[in-house]
Design brief:
The protein has helices at residues 2-19, 24-33, 38-63, 71-88, 94-114, 129-145, 151-160, 166-190, 196-217, 222-245. It is an all-alpha fold and 248 residues long. The relative contact order is 0.23.
């Protein structure tokens, strides 16, 4: 099991680097298929996100695709929301969390499918800092409660509504995961909801994977990158629906 989890970590890390997500959108369904309960899967997913988002954001910053600026305010909101989620999850049934998960994947899939590919950074829109913080808080509460970093929601917002170029939206999404995942980790650790052993195995494996994913991201154009993201969301949705309605 340990070797399998480490290999899964490499794969999840590659997806995190390439798509800018925390990895929970893929990892949670995979862990459910391996027999972990929803809340255990969420805990392992959050710990993996801490590893991959910190290292991935560092790599993106070195490559110049991560511009901190407004991301700080969204991230601080994500930290607050991620921490608050630790007080909510124990009272929410697994089935409800799974339906919320599917709803947000559907939202992300719709926004990415309908969003235009933006290359000109001058078209980027901005929002007041307080509103960025509020958006981050809302995303953090919901996302960490279902074991994802929030980038799956934030990237479609940045690309589809604020006209961010895809690569910068992806880098900003992974940076947001730093805040939300660290807060979610601390909140769940305080409540004894983190599987440190299995989470560490997946997390360490993801370090290699995130380096691979970011390297791949730099070698594809924006349009193809967007198409890959849409395909990834579709696969995630199919896995989760299969697990909920067709798996014994």
């Amino acid at each position: 099991m340990e070797i399998l989890l480490a290999l899964i970590g490499v794969g999840i890390g590659a997806l995190s680097g390439f798509f800018g997500i925390g990895g929970g959108t893929v990892l949670v369904p995979v862990l459910l298929l391996l027999g972990f309960g929803m809340k255990h899967a969420v805990g392992i997913s959050i710990m993996q996100m801490v590893f991959s988002s910190l290292y991935g954001s560092f790599l993106n910053w070195r490559k110049g695709t991560l511009i901190l600026g407004e991301g700080i305010f969204v991230g601080l909101g994500g930290f607050a929301g991620g921490y608050l989620s630790g007080y909510l999850t124990p009272y929410v049934p697994d089935r409800v969390l799974q339906f919320v998960f599917i709803a947000f994947v559907l939202f992300a899939l719709y926004r990415m499918f309908t969003a235009k590919v933006h290359e000109d950074e001058s078209l980027c829109r901005t929002l007041p800092k307080w509103l960025l913080f509020a958006i981050g808080t809302g995303i953090g509460v919901v996302a960490i409660s279902i074991g994802v970093g929030g980038a799956i929601i934030l990237i479609p917002v940045l690309s589809g509504l604020l006209h961010y170029p895809v690569k910068k939206a992806v880098s900003a999404g992974l940076f947001f995961v730093v805040f939300s995942s660290v807060a979610g980790f601390l909140g769940r650790l305080a409540h004894g909801q983190i599987d440190l052993y299995h989470g560490s195995i997946v997390g360490v494996g993801s370090l290699l994977g995130v380096w691979i994913g970011i390297w791949l991201k730099e070698h594809v154009d924006n349009r193809r990158h967007k198409n890959f993201i849409v395909g990834m969301y579709t696969i995630i949705l199919a896995i989760m629906i299969y697990k909920m309605f067709f798996s014994s």
